[in-house]
């Protein structure tokens, strides 16, 4: 791979990482919106958000496929095995002095992904607590039979179980 090819590939990777960061930021925002819908018990809006998340995940998958295509191309041109983006960043830095922007985008992407993971854990914790509360309410309702004493017109006690 010559210097010009390296620069072109580097620019393609920068653009991909920019897209990764944008899409993952959108995904984080949707995860926060999902939590707000859970708190408000707004199931209609929650369904809309889940559909948007699925579309966004599909876009991210397409970007990932493009990343893999570029990585394969670099491996063919260089005959160097690269399994992770870190391998490519190291290669571009050592061979061509290229990686500063890509490294920063990668760090930003990692931070965004960590925020998404934390928000997803928060959403899951809320759902688990809600399910636990529903389960406890069902048990309490099933176990509690209230006995109510009432009297009829003749003044006789009438007992009914509810």
How many DSSP-defined strands? 2
Assign the CATH superfamily: FlgN-like
| β-strand amount | 5-15%
SSE topology string = HHHHEE
The CATH topology corresponds to: Methane Monooxygenase Hydroxylase, Chain G, domain 1
C-alpha geometry = rod-shaped
State the end-to-end distance.
81 Å
Mean residue pLDDT: 89
The major β-sheet equals:
2 strands, antiparallel
**Overall CATH class:** Mainly Alpha
Output the strand order for the largest sheet: 1-2
Number of structural units classed as domains: 1
What percentage of residues falls in helices of 4 or more residues? over 70%
Label the CATH architecture. Up-down Bundle
Q: How many DSSP H or I helices?
A: 4
In terms of structural class, how would the helical and strand content be classed? mainly alpha
Name the poorly predicted regions: none
Radius of gyration from the alpha-carbon trace, in angstroms: 28 Å
List the helices and strands and how they pair.
Layout: H1 3-40, H2 43-78, H3 85-96, H4 100-143, E1 147-151, E2 157-161
Antiparallel strand pairs: 1-2
Helix pairs in contact: 1-2, 1-4
Describe the structure.
- With 162 residues, the protein is mainly α.
- It has one domain: FlgN-like (Methane Monooxygenase Hydroxylase, Chain G, domain 1, Up-down Bundle).
- It contains 4 helices and 2 strands, in the order ααααββ.
- It has helices at residues 3-40, 43-78, 85-96, 100-143, and strands at residues 147-151, 157-161.
- A two-stranded antiparallel sheet has the order 1-2.
- A hairpin with a 5-residue loop joins β1 (147-151) and β2 (157-161).
- The protein is rod-shaped, with a radius of gyration of 28 Å.
